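Quick one: structure tokens for this chain, please?
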Amino acid sequence: MQSDKTLHFRTKAFAKDNPLKSWWCILSSTVLLIAAAVGTLPAFPLAARFFFSPLLGLLLVRLFVIYHDQQHRAILPRSKPAEFFMRVFGIFVLCPSTIWRSSHDYHHAHNCKLRSANIGSYPVMTREQYQKSSTSDRFKYLLMRHPLTILFGYVVVFFLGMIIIPLINSPRKHYDSFLALLVHLALVLAVGIHFGWVALGLTVLLPFTIACALGSYLFYAQHNFPNVVFKDKAGWTYEGAALESSSYLQTNAVMAWFTGNIGYHHIHHLNHRIPFYRLPETYRAIPELRAAKTTSLNPMEIFRCLRLKVWCVETQRMVGVRGL
């Protein structure tokens, strides 16, 4: 296998945006999202509304991945309309740009680095750190990585993590968190008052729950899987962390579309300037990238990922806490 830096260089040929395609992805996905939202309202039969509600959640995921790409400047890097639209979308989905960009950029720069991995990602303790921690610290640590925390990411990861806590810690810096809070409360009240509580559940609560749960799990599984590698500062490299510590989450074509190809996460970490719609092309063109560490949305694979809790330095593996 060629060196990591050589692989990174070879990916640069794919780090080129197609503005027409990028705008098509943004606008078509937005139109579909609005149509799905309308389909959840009382004008339609209840069965249809129950179909459109989870569809709306999946479309929120797709637009979020597009937002994520634009914030990386992988698509439309110099477009002021795209920047404005995506900043508004970030406020709408409880992930304002100021907190997302700072934490996510830090995550990319310190991906799976043991002493720096907690910012912008799920916390990771070594087995020794866990054993020396107090009962309360262990509880907090396990709570942050608990499956219910991921399932209810709408409240825990996004509403609290992206809105309330940044707003309390630095209100001036994260003014858009305040805007997101106002917009979301206004949305909840408007839908509940004008269309009723069933519409509130189908138009807002269920789609956001689905989108945030899926988004929270994707972000978890991208760096918490059985063969992941964590390193300290010594021996850590950006390219090595992309190839050894970021997963290729295999999905079918439908889920790949809804998740914006974010399953090719090892390639995204190798070069975050590659547009999401060019990740499969990059994967096919560079054979070395097909040796990625894989996981999937198969229930057994999800279980294998969720049971991992601490990093064992001796065995160089993530392990559970039973028996520690």
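The mean pLDDT is 93.
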